[in-house]
């Protein structure tokens, strides 16, 4: 679990996870596209995310595809969120999203 | 073949044989899979079905069976009228020994365009895999949440 928190404690790595969340199964080239990071930096961040099991990779033909692996994040949630809180938390999250949308 | 939609990985402190049993045993699956039991003889071509509360929720056919390394079956969510009309998707499990644990990779692919099954199952897998890891490592599944279908 330390690896997961260390991997998440970096805005660039969270941005890479956001990109995979928006579109799963991207190549390194896809992920670098439009990012203000060098290819080497992205490679290094992906290695840290993969070591923390937050990113999973598969070979698809000649391409290496990167996937957001939400299993460790789910385990963090299960550790501190109780069964009956889940619905209320989802409602609060939705409320926050709606209200902040309106501010924009 | 289009690229996989989902790839999930979890490392479980167990043996490939125990994990294979956990993925294929009717009574054991029911304990961690939020009440779903899987039934099949797990030979290639054999039917596979997932039952919950006496009702079949998902159906498929075993496509590949190489215990305790690789298991693959087709998947149709039959509990929903629209989803049961969709062509079957495919679930593949890869079990690889890794530093005293087993790396379990679950790939779910082959969804139809605009599949209704896809968003439905995407929230289910992390829950099922977390629960599977928990039951094998601690003897306890995660808390059963009856609001979920599978």
From TrEMBL, chain A:
<feature type="domain" description="HTH arsR-type">
    <location>
        <begin position="1"/>
        <end position="88"/>
    </location>
</feature>
<dbReference type="InterPro" id="IPR001845">
    <property type="entry name" value="HTH_ArsR_DNA-bd_dom"/>
</dbReference>
<dbReference type="InterPro" id="IPR036388">
    <property type="entry name" value="WH-like_DNA-bd_sf"/>
</dbReference>
<dbReference type="InterPro" id="IPR011991">
    <property type="entry name" value="ArsR-like_HTH"/>
</dbReference>
<dbReference type="GO" id="GO:0003700">
    <property type="term" value="F:DNA-binding transcription factor activity"/>
</dbReference>
<protein>
    <submittedName>
        <fullName>Helix-turn-helix transcriptional regulator</fullName>
    </submittedName>
</protein>
<dbReference type="Pfam" id="PF12840">
    <property type="entry name" value="HTH_20"/>
</dbReference>
<dbReference type="InterPro" id="IPR036390">
    <property type="entry name" value="WH_DNA-bd_sf"/>
</dbReference>
UniProtKB/TrEMBL annotation, chain B:
<dbReference type="InterPro" id="IPR023393">
    <property type="entry name" value="START-like_dom_sf"/>
</dbReference>
<feature type="domain" description="Activator of Hsp90 ATPase homologue 1/2-like C-terminal">
    <location>
        <begin position="13"/>
        <end position="137"/>
    </location>
</feature>
<comment type="similarity">
    <text>Belongs to the AHA1 family.</text>
</comment>
<dbReference type="Pfam" id="PF08327">
    <property type="entry name" value="AHSA1"/>
</dbReference>
<dbReference type="InterPro" id="IPR013538">
    <property type="entry name" value="ASHA1/2-like_C"/>
</dbReference>
<protein>
    <submittedName>
        <fullName>SRPBCC family protein</fullName>
    </submittedName>
</protein>
